[in-house]
Amino acid sequence: MYRSASALALSLLVALTPAPSPSAPVQVPVEGGQPATAPVLDISGKILDISGKILDISERISNLDESVTDETSGRERTITVAADVLFAFDKATLTGKAASRLEQAAELLKAEAAGEPVTIDGYTDAKGSGSYNLELSRKRAEAVRDALGKLAPGTGFTVTGHGEADPVAPNALPDGGDNPKGRAKNRRVEIGFTR
């Protein structure tokens, strides 16, 4: 009982003692002797906000031959299909193989585009004249739009042909020779939308 009463008295004494200045040591009376002195730490100071740039997480998925890629960055999604999968050489008519690829794209549009406008951009390689490539890329983008319009009715599309602009790979090798693999990557149709 004696210890409990002493502890209570000590608690009351500390509670009723005026607060010292932040830099002055605190003196606490101790039973039977000198007061104990403890330093007081000044914990006041400027409060800082932690902030930083919020970055979107991007992901890119492709099949093994990279003829179809699905790239997401934040709310933006782009499905890129190699023109060689969709069209015969130098043509703007969809092939039989194109149907399954476009069906997959249509399912994504129905699930994620939610009425948002969808862009379809056609591209070619650098072979041929610029005006011919521009026309071919536009016709190919329109063919994709027509197919997707049937598979995902009610979706609004904006179609643009870019020809040989914005290549994703070199059309020529460093020595100036032809780069068939690079040209194949540049022949593509991109389907883009905001999720």
Labels describing this entry:
single chain, 195 residues, alpha+beta, 60s Ribosomal Protein L30, Chain: A, 2 domains, 6-stranded mixed sheet, 5 helices, 33% helix, OmpA-like
How would you characterize the overall build of this protein?
It is built from 5 helices and 8 strands; from the N terminus they run αβββββααβαβαβ. It has 195 residues and is α+β, with helices and mostly antiparallel strands. The protein has 2 domains: 2-38, no CATH class; 58-194, 60s Ribosomal Protein L30, Chain: A. Strand 4 (68-73) and strand 5 form a beta hairpin. Helix 3 packs across helix 4.
Distance between the termini: 71 Å
Name of the CATH homologous superfamily of the largest domain: OmpA-like domain
Average of pLDDT: 85
Proportion in helices: 25-40%
- Strand numbers in spatial order across the main sheet: 3-4-5-8-6-7
Q: What general outline do the C-alpha atoms trace?
A: elongated
Percent strand equals 15-25%
Whole-number count of domains: 2
Summed up, the helix count is: 5
In short:
The chain is an alpha+beta fold and 195 residues long. 33% of the residues lie in helices and 22% in strands. A 6-stranded mixed sheet has the order 3-4-5-8-6-7. The protein has a two-stranded antiparallel sheet with strand order 1-2.
